[in-house]
Amino acid sequence: MSDILQSLNFKVANASEEYKTRRKIQMVRFLASAAVTIFASRFAYKATITRQYVPTLFQGNHSPPLSYNFTTDAAVAVGTGTLLCGSVTSMLVFGSFWCMDVSNIKEFGWKMKSIMGGDIKEKELSEMPMDEESALIQDSINDMLEGRYDFDDEGDSSGSQK
C-alpha cells in the first residue's frame, strides 16, 4: 500500500504508522456516527409512518380516533428527536475532527486558536511591557508561591507593633 502511495506521490506514504493509525481511528469514528445517523433517521421515519392516522372510507379525517394516546406520541417524538439530534451532532463533531486532524478537545482548542490568530495575539500580548501595578502583583504572587512573605516595615514577623 505504501508503495502505491509513494508512486502516486502522496505525502501520507512518508507519514509515521502512529499518524496513519490516528487518521484511521478518526475515520472509523466518523463513519460509525454516520451509520448511527442513517439508522436513527430510518427509525424516525418508521416511527412517524406507523403513528400516522389514516382514516377509512367513512371516517372523518378532522379528528383522531378516541383510542389515540397523546402522551405516548409525545414520548416517541421526544425520543426520536433526541436520537436524531445526538447522532447528527456526533457525526458533525467527528467529521470536523477528522478534517482538522484533531483527536481531543484540547487539540481542538489549540487548532481553533491558531486558525483564528489567537496564538499570534497571545505572543504579541506576552511581548508587551508590563505596567508597575501588574508587575507588583505578579511579583507578590510569585513571592507567596515561593514561600517568601512581606511583613511589617520594622521586620517583625509576629505582626505585633513595638
From TrEMBL:
<dbReference type="GO" id="GO:0005739">
    <property type="term" value="C:mitochondrion"/>
</dbReference>
<keyword id="KW-0812">Transmembrane</keyword>
<keyword id="KW-1133">Transmembrane helix</keyword>
<comment type="similarity">
    <text>Belongs to the AIM11 family.</text>
</comment>
<keyword id="KW-0472">Membrane</keyword>
<protein>
    <recommendedName>
        <fullName>Altered inheritance of mitochondria protein 11</fullName>
    </recommendedName>
</protein>
<dbReference type="InterPro" id="IPR038814">
    <property type="entry name" value="AIM11"/>
</dbReference>
<feature type="transmembrane region" description="Helical">
    <location>
        <begin position="74"/>
        <end position="98"/>
    </location>
</feature>
<feature type="transmembrane region" description="Helical">
    <location>
        <begin position="27"/>
        <end position="45"/>
    </location>
</feature>
<dbReference type="GO" id="GO:0016020">
    <property type="term" value="C:membrane"/>
</dbReference>
